[in-house]
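Design request, tokens follow.
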């Protein structure tokens, strides 16, 4: 009789343990299922741009959003109150100085957000006073392959430095 009680108690305790373990909140490290490595993105100013009010946003974009962001007019993006700019998960760079380029490091928390959101592309969008064209770059993170990306803001355009 005591053997049966012992077995029943053992079964109940075992069930409680298994249930507790099964319901426990697990810490999940975001998988890099997107298939890309984090690059370092360095943005620098050149020429007459220094000293001017230049703004650069780096936006993490999922594959399904790529067409939208590739077609989004830069003037509309920089218009005050633009809802797409407000909602975008972006890294902002301001106040450029030739001696001090700005850097989005691999360890920046923005990369964690982008990985969790399934980002595949980066769009770099600049607000350069007096420039109408060539203010947007699209970068495929799979093609970049974790390499350092150098971008230069000039009086005429935004350009990737090879």
């Amino acid at each position: 009789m005591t053997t049966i009680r012992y077995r029943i108690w053992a079964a109940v305790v075992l069930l409680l343990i298994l249930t507790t373990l099964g319901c426990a909140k697990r810490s999940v490290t975001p998988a890099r299922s997107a298939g890309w490595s984090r690059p370092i993105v360095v943005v620098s100013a050149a020429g007459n741009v220094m000293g001017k009010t230049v703004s650069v946003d780096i936006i993490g974009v999922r594959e399904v959003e790529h067409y939208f962001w590739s077609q989004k007019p830069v003037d509309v993006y920089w218009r005050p109150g633009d809802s797409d700019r407000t909602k975008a998960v972006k890294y902002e760079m301001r106040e450029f100085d030739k001696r001090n380029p700005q850097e989005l490091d691999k360890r920046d928390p923005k990369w964690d957000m982008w990985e969790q959101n399934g980002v595949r592309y980066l769009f770099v969008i600049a607000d350069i006073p007096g420039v109408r064209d060539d203010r947007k770059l699209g970068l495929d993170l799979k093609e970049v392959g974790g390499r350092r990306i150098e971008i230069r803001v000039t009086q005429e355009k935004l350009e990737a430095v090879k």
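Comment from the thread starter after seeing the answer: thanks! The first strand starts at residue 41 and ends at 45.
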